[in-house]
Amino acid sequence: MDWYPWLNTSYRQLIGQYAAGRGHHALLLHAAPGNGDEALLYALSRWLLCQQRNGGKSCGECHSCRLMLAGNHPDYHVLALEKGKSSLGIEPIRQVIETLYSHAQQGGAKVVWLPQAELLTEAAANALLKTLEEPPANTFFLLACREPAHLLATLRSRCFYWHLANPDEAFSLQWLNRLSPRNPADCVTALRLHDGAPIAAEQLLQPEHWQQRMALCSVLNTALPQQDMLLLLPALNHDNAAERLHWLSALLVDAMKWQQGAASYVVNQDQQPLIQQLANRLSSTSLQQIVQQWLHCRHQLLNVVGVNRELLLTEQLLGWEQMLGSAGYSPPHSL
Fold it and tell me: Most buried of the four, 69, 99, 145, 218, by CB within 10 Å?
C-alpha cells in the first residue's frame, strides 16, 4: 500500500503512544475520503502485529510481516462491506468476535480493521460495543469513519478519537506537482472539489476522469446562452451522476461567491469565465434556489432505491429552463 508524506506526523504520534504502553485498544480515525486513512491504519496494523519491531517501524522480515505483505495474516481481520450491500450487519461482527477470543495464531497481537464504521447496523454496533467494553487481551480495534456523528454515542465513547486533517493546500499542490506537473489552476480546482483531500484530487486529475468534468463545463457554457438546459442531460445521466452533480453545484455556489466579490475563494479556479456567466445570468436568489434543488436531487439519487435517474434529472433541467426564461421560478416537485 502506498505511503503519503502528510501521514508521518500522525503515524509517529500514534505509534509513540502504543510504544509507551498508552495506546488505546480501540482507535476511531476520522478522515475525509481520499486523505490516506487506509494507508495510516494499515501501517499501524503492521506495527502492532510485527514480532521484531524496529523502533517506530515494522521490520518487514518476520513471519508476521511476511504474512501481512502476502495479505493472509490469520490475526488481521478486515470488516469491509460485502459487494452489493450498503451496511455491515451483525453476522460478520459475531464471526470476528468469536475468532478473537481464541489464542492468536501467531502468538502476538490481534487487529480488527473496520474501514467504514458508520455503516454498521444498530445490531452490529451493539455487538461490537460489548466487545469494546471487555476486549480480549492484546487485541486492537481500528475504526475509520467519515461522519463520527453517525456512530452510536456509546460506541464513540469507547474509542480514542483521532482526526486526520487534510494537509494544507500549498503542501498538497507540491505533492501533486511532484507526481506529474500540471496546470496550477487545475490542481487547485481538483483539491477544492474534494475539500483538500490530495489523493481524491489526484484521482480526479487523471485524464479520463478530468475530461468528464471538462465536458460538463463545456456543455453548460453552451446551454446557458441558448437557455436549453436539456443539453446537459447526456453529460449528467451517468453512473457517477452524483459526482457530476457535485461538480455542477460547486459551479453554482462559485457564482454566488463571484457575485459577492469573493472570486479568490471559488472552487473552480479553472472555470472563471463560466462562473462569471452564471453570476451574470442568475440572481443570487435564483442561484440559491437551484443549488438547493440540485443538492436535493443528488440526495435522492444516492438514497432513493429504484429512482428513475433520467426522469429526475430531466425534471430538474426543465425547472432550470423555466427559471432562466421567466422572472419567477417554481422549483420542480420531488419524486
Answer: 145
Closest CA to 110 of 121, 99, 125, 120: 99
CA distance 103 to 118: 29
Q: For residue 78, is it left (φ>0), alpha (ψ between -120 and 50) or beta?
A: beta
Whether the model pTM is above 0.85: yes
d(CA 153, CA 255): 39
- Contact between 313 and 320 under an 8 Å Cβ cutoff? The reply is no
Please report how the helices 184-193 and 241-259 are oriented relative to each other, as an axis angle in degrees rounded to 10.
110
CA atoms of 120 and 128, how far apart (whole Å): 9
Q: 1, 5, 2, 3: which is closest to 167 by C-alpha?
A: 5
**Contact (Cβ atoms closer than 8 angstroms) between residue 73 and residue 102:** no
Hey, what's the cell of 99? 475468532
pLDDT digits (tens, 9 = 90+) for 230-253: 999 999 999 999 999 999 999 999
Alpha-carbon gap, residue 19 to 8, rounded angstroms: 16
Distance CA 93, CA 131 (A): 10
241-259 vs 272-281: helix crossing angle, rounded to 10: 70
Over the Cα atoms of the chain, what is R_g?
24
Cβ neighbours of 20 (radius 10 Å): 8
pLDDT tens-digit readout, 30-68? 999 999 999 999 999 999 999 999 999 999 999 999 999
* Domains in the chain, CATH or no CATH each: 6-163 (3.40.50.300), 206-326 (1.20.272.10)
pLDDT digit string, tens, across residues 261-292:
999 999 999 999 999 999 999 999 999 999 99
**Burial class of residue 250 (count of CB atoms within 10 Å of its CB; 0-12, 13-18, 19+):** buried
Non-local (6+) Cβ contacts of 195 within 8 A are: 32, 166
Closest CA to 298 of 330, 255, 252: 252
Strand ranges in the chain using DSSP code E only, listed in sequence order: 26-31, 76-78, 110-114, 139-145, 160-164
